[in-house]
Amino acid sequence: MRAFVLFRLPDGSSVELGHGDLIGRLRSAALPIADGRISEAHAMVSLRGQDLKLLALRGRFAVDGKPGQAVVLTAGQRIALAEGLSLVVEQVALPDAVFGVEGDGLPPVVVTGTSSLLTRPRPELVPRFLPTAPAHLWNDGEDWVLSHAGHTRSVRAGDEWVVDGRRFRGAAVALRRAGRSVTRLDGAFSRPLRVVARFETVHVMPDRGPPLALSGLAARLLSELVAFDGPVAWQVLARELWPVEDDEHLLRRKLDVNLSRLRRRLREASIRSDLVRSDGKGHVELFLHDGDTVEDCT
């Protein structure tokens, strides 16, 4: 129950990468490449809706000879990271559902690589190893593994466990969704919005009035929320935007500043600022009213 891509490397070996895995010249990258032409965080594999994509971060790549910033991964592609340095896509695995965790105060969250399960001050799943976390999850190539209180065991969807008095369980998070959920605000009135997200640009178009065109970090932030299609932990969102930043306090500050700027842009354009909403429990989401529509072109 894991979405992954299998790349063949120039030396003939193969490596499996999943959602959130980085390609870069840092040793900590999931696929480290010792080449001065490769950026520290060159590109990232990302699960977007029903597709696995390769996203350019600080580097560039070409797919079958054509330059690109984002590409849906399919078997047979040749991805050139630099001249004479190419990866070949051997396999793309997309199950109907991927493994996630949910529990008391924690909505279903997809587990990406090694993750830390926190319980205080509120339940959170952080997509990296934190030594002080009471529990950790990772994939050993065949199963998902839970480590807690000095013990490790395999876990799958439906399994339950307790950490610090809170109950958690494995969840099957469907890749296919019948439709985008819409949140209704009783008694509230707002003109329907149409959001067109293209990663580098986003257009927010009210039913009446001029559209708001966003670019840069504001567009990337809103596009990430469109792609996640539901509440996402702030750490996950922040690391999509700043993948090489290790300081969690600085990550939170960067995200808060950019969320504030985005909401100000929305207000200045007479568009409701709660289009991007925090739930007070560490999650951020795209908050849709009845009649709002979204086009995910990322």
Strand and helix map with partners:
Layout: E1 4-8, E2 14-18, E3 22-24, E4 31-32, E5 43-48, E6 51-56, E7 61-63, E8 66-68, E9 70-72, E10 78-82, E11 85-93, E12 97-103, E13 106-110, E14 115-118, E15 124-126, E16 135-139, E17 144-148, E18 151-155, E19 160-163, E20 166-174, E21 193-197, E22 201-206, E23 212-215, H1 216-228, E24 232-233, H2 234-241, H3 248-268, E25 276-278, E26 283-286, E27 293-296
Parallel strand pairs: 3-4, 21-27
Antiparallel strand pairs: 1-2, 1-11, 3-5, 5-6, 6-9, 7-8, 7-10, 10-11, 12-13, 12-20, 14-15, 14-16, 16-17, 17-18, 19-20, 21-22, 22-23, 24-26, 25-26
Describe the structure.
By secondary structure, this protein is mainly beta. The chain folds into three domains: 4-93, Tumour Suppressor Smad4 (Sandwich); 97-174, Tumour Suppressor Smad4 (Sandwich), CATH 2.60.200; 193-296, Arc Repressor Mutant, subunit A (Orthogonal Bundle). 14% of the residues lie in helices and 42% in strands. The protein has three helices and 27 strands. The strands form six sheets. The protein has a six-stranded antiparallel sheet with strand order 2-1-11-10-7-8, with no helix packed on it. The chain has a five-stranded mixed sheet with strand order 4-3-5-6-9, with no helix packed on it. A hairpin with a 2-residue loop joins β7 (61-63) and β8 (66-68). α2 crosses α3. The longest helix is centred in the C-terminal third of the chain and has 21 residues, at 248-268. The relative contact order is 0.13. Residues 177-189 have low confidence and may be disordered.
